[in-house]
Amino acid sequence: MNPTFKHFFKGDCTNITKPSPMETCNDHTCTINLNILKQCGFYQIFDPNSKKIFGWNVYRISFIALTVITQCLIGFGNCGFLFELEDTTDNIDLFLIIFSNSYFCLTEWKVVILIINRKKFLELLDVTDLIFLKSKQCRNNIKILCKHRIRALQLTNLYFMFCIFVIIEWIIFPIMINSFIAHKTENRRLENVVNRRYPVDVNTYNKYYILFYVFEIIIGVKTVYLVLMVDILLLSIGWAIIIQYEVLAEAFKNIGYNENLQKDHDHDVDDYKYFKSILFDQQQLDSKVKLYFPIVKPIVLMHVAINSVLFIMLSNSFLMVFLSTESFTYKIVNLFKIGTGILYICLQLFLYCHLFDNINLKRKSVNLGIYSCNWTKMDLKFKKLLLLTMQINDANYITIKASTKTIVNLPIFANVLMTSYNIVSVMVKTMSKYRKT
What we know:
Subcellular location: Cell membrane
Distance between the termini: 76 Å
Number of helices: 14
Structural class: mainly alpha
Oligomer: single chain
InterPro entries: 7tm6_olfct_rcpt
Main location: membrane
GO molecular function, one term: olfactory receptor activity
Strand order of the largest sheet: 1-2
Shape: elongated
Radius of gyration: 26 Å
Transmembrane segments: 61-83, 95-116, 158-181, 210-243, 300-323, 335-355
Helix content: over 70%
C-alpha cells in the first residue's frame, strides 16, 4: 500500500503527506466513486488506455453496438402507432411510452456529449483528487476533503441502490399484474414494463410475450444504466468542485490568524506569500470550472427541460390511475410504479438544481473568506492585492442559465413542482365536473 495514504484507509486524514508528482487520481485518493464506474465498464469508454482491438476502444464499440440494438428495439416498439391494430392504447400507457423514449434519448444525448469532450472530461477528474490544491494552507484543511469523500461515496452508493430498486420494481410489477391481478381476456395484451405498441395483434403478442418482455427489460436496463453512470460522474465532479471552493474559502479566511505559520518570520512577507499560493490554487480551480461548465451546460439544460415536462406528465398519469375504474389492487400496483418514477425524476432534478445552486454559493463564499482574513493588520500592498482579487472573482463569476435571466438553481426546481401542482389541480377540478355531468 502506498504509505502516502496509509492513514487514510484507516479513517485518519491527519497524516496525509504530499505524494510524488507522478501519482494520479485513483480509487483511494479521489472523491468520486471510481469503483462503480470501472466495475460497470463506463469509465473505460473514455479511458484512452482501455483495451483496444485494431486501435478501437472495445468498451466504446460495445456501447455503440448496444445502443444501435436498443434503438432498433425502441423503433420496433413504436411501429404499432403506424398501423391500425385491434386494441387501443390508453393515455396512461401513452405517457409511459413517451417517458421511456424521452429518457432513453436524453441519456444517449448525455453520453454523446461526454464522448465528444472526452479529453477535456478526463482533465476534469483532477479536481476530484484530495491533493488537487497544492498550497500548504489548503493542505491543512485536508480533513474537510476526507469528510466530503466519505459523504460523497455514501451518497453515490445510496443513489445507485435506489436506481437499482426502481428498475427491479418496474421489471417485477408486470409479472405480478399478469399472474395475480389482470383478467385474461382475448382483446387485452399482457402487462409489460412500459406496454410499448408493438405492430402485432393481441394473440401474437400474448403468445410471444416473453420475447417482448425481454425487449423491454433490455431497453429499461440500458436506460437506467446510462442515467446512473452519467449522474454519478457529473454530480461527483460537481460535488468535488463545491468542496474545493470550501477549502479555498477556509484557507483564505485563516490568513493572518495562524501565529505558528508566522513565527520567526516577517509578518507581512509571509502572509503575502501564503495569499499568493492560495490564489494560484484558486486559478487552477477556476480553470477547471470553466472547463466543466461548457461540457455540462447542454446536458443540464436538456435534462432540466425534459425532466420538467416528464415530471408533469407522470404526475398526470398518477392522477389518471388514481381516478380510474380498475380494481383496487391494480391501481395500487400502478400507483406505486408510477409514483417511484415521479420520485426518481424529482430526486434527479433536485440533485442537479441543488448542485449548481451550491456551486454558485460556494464560489461567492471565496470572496467572503478573503474578506474574513486578518486584512486590517496588513500593509497597503496586501490590501490592494486583496481588493483586486475580489474584483476579479466578481468579474469571472459564471453560471449556467436556462435563459438570459433564469439561472439553473433550486428556484427552478420549486417552479416545476408548483407548475405540476397547478396542472394537476386543474385536471382534478375538470374531471370532477365531468363526472357530475
